[in-house]
Amino acid sequence: MLLQTQKTSLRPQTTAHLAQTMSLLELTSAELSQKIEAALASNPALELTEERRCPYCHRPTLKAGPCPACKAPLAAAADQPIVFVSPRRDFRRSGGQLEEDSDSPEEWTAAAEDLPTFVGRQIAPELSLEERALAAHLLTSLDEDGLLTVSLSEVARYHHVPLARVERVQRLIQRAEPLGVGSCSPQEALLVQLEVLAETRTPPRKTEQAIRLGMDALSRRAYGELGRLLGVSTEKAIQIADFISENLNPYPARAYWGDIHQGAAQQPFYPEPDIIISRLSETDDTPLMVEIVSPYAGALRVNTLFRQALSEAPPEKAKAWQQDFEEAALLVKCLQQRDNTLVRLMQRLATLQRAYILYGDAHIIPLTRAQLAQELEVHESTVSRAVAGKAVQLPNRKIVPLARWFDRSLNVRTALLQIIAEEEQPLSDTQIARLLARQGFDVARRTVAKYRSMEGILPARLRHHPTRPNGHP
DNA sequence: CTATGGCACGGATT
DNA sequence: AATCCGTGCCATAG
Questions:
Q1: Vertex A429, ends A423 and A431: CA angle to 5°?
Q2: Within a 10 A sphere around the Cβ of A327, how many other Cβ atoms?
């Protein structure tokens, strides 16, 4: 029982198998989608089936995901996340030019609709015939962020209608889900969202001005500058910025705006989640549902007719066909294994980081890839590959890199933000370090300084507290 | 003398 | 093997 460790991983028969599984593992669902489509196009041995099956009982089902029969008992075990693979296709739009594809067959799920259709359906009832044309024009001119690529006046001119009519339509679009789509700029999108949000909640004072005047400072996370611009303290500015990044999204079509803190370097956004997590109920003990997006999962298979034809292949083709067949079989098998690995990974991860998933950054558990690899009995490079480049959508609709789940310092940094946000007067790094230690975060003073600058927070001395007296205009 | 930022070392990650 | 990250040490600014 000593050296039995080198066994299971050898299951794959060929090195090709192993290699391909590995390379598939690190692909995001969007990339995978492309790869599969390419394979489908070039390899006649592959085919798609129409039938969908429940990932648990394998009985045919109409929708992606566990069938109702499986879901209920699963949901009973609140401590175990429900993890499954879903073929949900991405939103990827090509250039988004006109011609609404009228040939779109059945959708896999509602989410497989493309953005223009999705929005169009929401607003259609409120549109006159003429307005529909305008709406169609606008909706087909969205970029992948959900922002317009044409100007309103351009559209107005094209259709020979007054600008005001186009504006009316745009307004309808903007107020549809996702809130703010069809805006001309991130700024406008934010304003629309703020407006709608204000109907039910009260945003911090000056939030609107912050968006109107401080977009630049905001995106650079120059909170001091933002504060000056608005005539408020840096803390107040941070508060506003936090509110904005917590609740608004400058790129409506992307579920969320990268990240709250984490210097300006946090440039890339994660438009298409590879993994989608949702909660089954609003209660604290809700089971989590983890959906691993794997394009064509369950639908891709080796064409059975092709297999039969293999034996009757004309001699000159036999070799090529045989090769196609083997390639196809390999691909299908590797995909299965990839999905399987991801399921196991997410199962464990969702359990470990449940608090983080439900309650946010402050509750993340520092976790290393190596640790997880050991628990799952896979090589750590496997975990690394699986995690790299993937995006997860959390129940609150935010999209974060899966790698974030392994951030060793995130919880400390959020605690640090918290402290600074609540400080009565500027605290020095040493003092902050002490406070953190009191909360169980044992970090060096030097490290506090690093985190602070990482979050774009000025040193204590420059962090003026405006001494409240002279309120605000 | 105190608070910070720069540089570099050692361990963890990739 | 190459990189990244938390820290300690030290110089500098106030």
A1: 60
A2: 18
With b for 16 or more beta-carbon neighbours within 10 A and e for fewer, the A123-153 pattern comes to: beeebeeebebbbbbbbbbbebbbbbeeebe
Q: Does domain A410-462 have CATH number 1.10.530?
A: no
Report the 10 Å Cβ neighbour count for A282: 7
Please tell me the pTM assigned to this model.
0.63
Instruction: Report domain extents, chain A.
Output: 12-88+272-406, 91-184, 410-462
Verify if strand C has an atom below 7 Å from the CB of A443. yes
Our measurement of CA A234 to C1' B4, in angstroms, reads 19
| CA gap A107, A95 in Å, rounded | 21
- Tell me which nucleotides of strand B come within 7 A of a protein CB: 2-7, 12-14
Which nucleotides in chain C have some atom under 7 angstroms from a protein Cβ?
5-9, 14
pLDDT along chain A (473 residues), means of 10: 37 65 79 85 86 72 68 68 73 26 27 61 79 86 78 88 90 82 86 82 81 77 79 81 73 50 34 76 80 84 84 79 88 88 90 87 85 86 84 75 84 86 86 88 89 83 57 35
Instruction: Please report, for residues A124, A146, A155, A181, A368, the alpha-carbon distance to residue A165 in angstroms, rounded to integers and kept in the order given.
Output: 15, 20, 10, 17, 55
Give me the CA A201–C1' C3 separation in Å, rounded: 45
Q: Report yes or no: A325 and A310 within 8 Å, Cβ to Cβ.
A: yes
Rounded Cα gap, residues A198 and A179, in angstroms: 13
CATH 1.10.10.1330 for the A91-184 domain, yes or no? yes
Fold: same for A91-184 and A410-462: yes
Measured CA A453 to C1' B7 distance, in angstroms: 17
Q: Is A380 exposed, middle or buried (0-12, 13-18, 19+ CB in 10 A)?
A: middle
Q: Does any strand C atom come closer than 7 Å to the Cβ of A421?
A: no
Considering only CA atoms, which of A115, A258, A95 is closest in space to residue A181? A115
Q: Where are the alpha helices (DSSP H) in A14-113?
A: 15-25, 29-42, 68-76
